[in-house]
Amino acid sequence: MKEFKRAVLVIVSAVLLTSWSVPAHAADGVFRDIFENAFYGGLAGTLVGGALLAFTKRPGDHLDYLSVGAATGVIAGTAYGIAKSSRALAEIDNGKVRLAMPTIMPEFQEASAKGGSTVMLKAELIRGKF
């Protein structure tokens, strides 16, 4: 009886999740760009992990370097893709508000008194089209 209740719960959950889901897509291929960056990051990470196998005495014992490199590459590629695609914290376009992580841009300013330079970080908080 317990397995029957669990099976019914799984079937009902699957039906509800698939019938009421709203299809979502990113405008201008943003999701595609993030996915490509994650994919290529994973490939590059796997190559780096494979290259590190050359420096071990028994490479067959350290094949986990490949998976760790791939996982690190996917995370780094995804982070790069998200940072590259987002511009402002809140963007207003045709009456719709989109929230995202703002792009932080460094700006170098030279100090006149001491002759050194200062690094300032700036990020857009609101962007809109009127």
Automatic annotation (TrEMBL):
<keyword id="KW-0732">Signal</keyword>
<keyword id="KW-0472">Membrane</keyword>
<protein>
    <recommendedName>
        <fullName>Glycine zipper 2TM domain-containing protein</fullName>
    </recommendedName>
</protein>
<keyword id="KW-1133">Transmembrane helix</keyword>
<keyword id="KW-0812">Transmembrane</keyword>
<feature type="signal peptide">
    <location>
        <begin position="1"/>
        <end position="26"/>
    </location>
</feature>
<feature type="transmembrane region" description="Helical">
    <location>
        <begin position="37"/>
        <end position="56"/>
    </location>
</feature>
